Amino acid sequence: MMMTASTIAPTAMAMPPSDMMFELSPCPNMIIIEASTAMGRMTIATNALRRCIRNSRHTSATTTLSSISFSLSVSTARSMSAVRS
Prior knowledge:
Layout: H1 28-84
């Protein structure tokens, strides 16, 4: 015996969350955010490189001045000890 359509109980057809799929195409805002993030990272890296180069230049200049100063002080000490003896 067949039941008529009006007497059949409705059944829920909900999909479990594990079966749901989201659309894979990125929205335009995500593309802009990713591009600006990449540009920001590049800017940070470039600034760090510039800072490193500037610091190495200062270090080499300081080393040069310090070695010249040391050489002068050694030669002055030698000449003073020669005069004293």
